[in-house]
Amino acid sequence: MKQIPHLNEQIRQEIMNIELQCERLGQKLETIFTDDFHELKEQIVIELIREVKGRPAKSEDIFNENYESYLEVGVEKKDVYFPNAYIPVWKCKREMFHSIGLLMNDNLNLLEKKLCKIITEMHEDHMKERDS
User: Fold this and answer.
1) The pTM is what?
2) Fewer beta carbons within 10 angstroms: which end of the chain, N or C?
3) What domain range includes position 99?
């Protein structure tokens, strides 16, 4: 993750845009992989989580101390959710006397490849479990 020492309105807009792109990427990949998991009687779930100290947050809270956002990948099976992996997107923390941000290094293409690899491995593992 790369450190962003000066938080301003331009950075806020960039982070909000990146989070929005991550949400859209999650929706796109859910659609692509739905049928693969449907055959296992599972539903793939990819969502952007926004939190401040473990509690739900809004995109407007981006510069709040302890705000973090990440993409979480999991499956829902028989109405029970099983998280599998997560990829940090943004984190705001207090360091000395001011806030700094940490932003993922990945561009959207690299992030998509990473997510596809995670999802493919998850699917393969669940296929093995079903077949054993």
Assistant:
1) 0.91
2) C
3) 2-127
